[in-house]
Design goal:
256 residues, 3-stranded mixed β-sheet, 10 helices, 38% helix
């Protein structure tokens, strides 16, 4: 089983403190270099327009782009799982993982990225901002979905084959799941949804749903989940499996 997760806009750029684990290189650095080559040519105003950013955020990301280099090492990069710091990663709490948790995550968790394509948790990355849904034009490609084509799909398929599984757990947002072309994946795809009780009904509330995706990722990793039905035992932070709202490949978890 492999779970996929979206990246985060919020990053932890504090110095990397080596925790004695072998880190890895992102497998699509050549493609990342092409994309960053386009971004490096954009001034702060153009970045603001592309990503709908304030002047201050645009300037910060302009500087990030200029500093980005294809050479990733422990001096200029950090593991992806410790760099992303949004709600999902606050639920994941990777800094608390044991060595066996980290190894399991490396094999069974994938982070989809507008810049890096498919990341393993221990792949080194440098600070960046590039949401998958942005219409960044490259030579002959109108946007990032067009740029990545089937590469993300094929990589996920290869990773599933490597661990001998045909089950993928979709914990990514629609923006990133779209890039994976999951309908074309030769595997069972289980999508997890998380809903809150409000005004007499259950509704998804984005900030909570994002954190819950990270919580589910942690549940999978720390319990070494291999059997899809075992996902239904997820109970972190008072979530419970809701059989009435679920279907065969759409697992819904609710809390009051």
């Amino acid at each position: 089983m492999i779970a996929i997760l979206s990246p985060a806009k919020k990053l932890d750029e504090s110095p990397y403190e080596h925790f004695g684990f072998e880190l890895s290189q992102a497998r699509m650095l050549n493609e990342a270099e092409v994309l960053m080559g386009v971004l490096k040519k954009k001034n702060p105003k153009e970045i603001a327009q592309l990503m709908d950013l304030s002047p201050n955020l645009a300037e910060m990301n302009f500087e990030r782009n200029q500093e980005w280099t294809k050479e990733h090492d422990e001096k200029n990069s950090k593991p992806a799982i410790l760099t992303f710091n949004g709600e999902a990663y606050q639920g994941l709490k990777a800094a608390e993982f044991s060595p066996s948790d980290l190894q399991y995550a490396q094999d069974h968790l994938r982070i989809l990225s507008g810049l890096y394509g498919v990341l393993r948790p221990l792949d080194l990355i440098q600070p960046y901002r590039l949401e998958m849904g942005r219409a960044l034009k490259t030579k002959g490609k109108k946007n990032l979905y067009d740029f990545w084509g089937d590469e993300i799909l094929n990589t996920l398929s290869d990773d599933l084959e490597e661990i001998g599984s045909r089950v993928l757990v979709n914990l990514a947002s629609n923006e990133y799941a779209k890039a994976a072309k999951l309908k074309n994946l030769d595997a069972r795809v289980i999508t997890c949804e998380f809903k809150e009780h409000k005004n007499g009904t259950y509704k998804p509330i984005m900030v909570f749903a994002k954190k819950a995706r990270g919580l589910m990722s942690r549940f999978i990793i720390q319990n070494k989940i291999e059997i899809p039905e075992h996902l239904k035992a997820f109970d972190l932070e008072d979530y419970v499996f809701n059989p009435r709202m679920s279907s065969e490949d759409n697992f819904v978890f609710t809390r009051n």
